[in-house]
Design a protein that fits this description.
By secondary structure, the chain is mainly alpha-helical. It has helices at residues 2-16, 25-34, 38-49, 60-73, 78-86, 98-103, 106-115, 132-140, 147-159, 173-182, 187-197, 205-221, 226-238, 241-244, 257-264, 279-287, 291-294, 297-304, 307-310, 313-326, 339-349, 352-360; strands at 93-96, 121-123. It has a domain at 291-381.
Length: 381
């Protein structure tokens, strides 16, 4: 006990020194809980709450520490969790470990979620993958009303085959559907979600397609098996009646021009870098472009000058081969890349070999017929 008093006196002395005013009190508070020096933790809490010492700015780390101790050592540490929460009733706890919540005993989960208000916990882990029991618990305590969590919970409920557990008047089903596309869910999940919610997806179809293409692009480059799963989901979206009812009169089973140009026009400052796209995805996109679009010189030039094609010789080659096979254009029409465009692409993406190969297509004395399979390339360039 005397040793404990010495510790508290040392803490008080350090906190009273001006050079220690900027100590990382949050870290010290968390460590005090970690090593069960509750006397030190309580002293820091008291100084912070009474404004007589440094303030604990973000107790989120301490809460994660306390949760971890409950998971590792059992219910004996539940009081630590409750104490951190009750001493910070207005604080927004961030980066709380979802997997820690999942591992807690049901009684401890219930205690935790009863102690905090709706939206007070922001989890750092995608709730896709949590169990139906945890979803039900979050719902019982009305944490599903938090927009940051509700869409993912709804989607997980669909994946688990029980979407009814999250039907609610405040849930934005469009965001749930978009989340399904962002995460590349199987077509069965996307179809079920559309049917269960009776959602009109026409206003968000382009967003859905771009999200799915973004996910597909990643899966293609890492040779993931879910590439085919993403393709099936895209085909499903393109087969819906809502797709044909879009304002730009889309054709069943095909992208419209703006879908393709939006995906291919993304830059590094936007969701993903499209300067490198696998040949499988490029061929799939080309196969979903209508014949009318393939014979639209303005569309083709816009496509070839996009971020995706202008930095990828593979993309350029597949488009040119497709055009030559179609054999519609009989005179050159493809625009030569401008010096500013080339400079910007080199500076932004550094695809030197690809950009050099594209430029060579327009040089009459350096054309290599091996670069393009068909030798009547002058019809286009």
């Amino acid at each position: 006990m005397e040793q404990d008093n010495d510790w508290l006196q040392l803490i008080d002395m350090l906190l009273g020194k001006s050079e220690f005013l900027y100590l990382n009190i949050d870290s010290i508070y968390s460590d005090a809980i970690k090593y069960r020096r509750l006397d030190v933790a309580y002293r820091l809490e008291g100084l912070s709450l009474n404004h007589t010492g440094p303030r604990i700015e973000d107790p989120s780390r301490a809460l994660n520490t306390a949760l971890g101790m409950v998971v590792g050592q059992g219910a004996i540490n539940e009081d630590l969790v409750v104490r951190v929460l009750r001493n910070n009733p207005k604080h927004l706890f961030k980066a709380i470990k979802m997997n820690a919540l999942e591992k807690l005993q049901p009684g401890t989960q219930d205690l935790l979620l009863r102690t905090v208000r709706d939206g007070q916990l922001i989890f750092d882990m995608d709730p896709l993958g949590i169990s139906a029991d945890s979803i039900n618990l979050l719902t019982v305590h009305e944490h599903q009303r938090d927009d940051r969590l509700s869409e993912r919970m709804m989607l997980q409920a669909v994946i688990l085959g029980d979407a009814e557990m999250l039907y609610s008047p405040w849930l934005d089903y469009r965001e749930v559907f978009l989340t399904a596309c962002k995460t590349g869910q199987p077509v069965e999940v996307i179809r079920s979600l559309r049917q269960m919610t009776k959602l009109d997806i026409a206003p968000i179809i382009q967003d859905c397609l771009v999200h799915l293409l973004n996910h597909t692009k990643t899966m293609d480059l890492i040779l993931d098996h879910s590439f085919d799963q993403c393709i099936e989901a895209i085909d499903y979206i393109l087969s819906t009646t809502e797709h044909t009812q879009r304002v730009d009169k889309s054709i069943l089973g095909h992208f419209n021009s703006s879908d393709v140009l939006r995906f291919c026009g993304q830059t590094k400052s936007k969701p993903i870098d499209v300067s490198v796209i696998g040949s499988r995805l490029i061929r799939f996109i080309w196969s979903k472009i209508t014949q009318q679009q393939r014979r639209d010189s303005m569309f083709i030039n816009s496509l070839l000058s996009s971020e995706a094609a202008s930095n990828s010789f593979t993309f350029y080659r597949i488009v040119l081969e497709g055009l030559l096979e179609d054999n519609h254009f009989q005179t050159p029409f493809i625009n030569v890349p401008t010096i500013p465009e080339v400079t910007r692409n080199i500076q932004s993406y550094r695809r030197y070999s690809d950009i050099r190969s594209i430029i060579r297509l327009f040089h009459p004395f350096s054309f290599n017929p091996n670069l393009i399979k068909l030798t009547d390339k002058p019809k286009l360039i």
